[in-house]
Amino acid sequence: MNVQFTVNGRAASLDIPPNTLLVQALREHLHLTGTHVGCDTSQCGACTVIVDGRAIKSCTMLAVQAQGCEVQTIEGLAAADGSLHPMQAAFKQCHGLQCGFCTPGMVMSAVDLCRQQPQASDAEIRELLEGNFCRCTGYQNIVAAVKKGREGMSAV
Question: Does the keyword Amino-acid biosynthesis belong to this entry (predicted)?
Answer without folding.
Answer: no
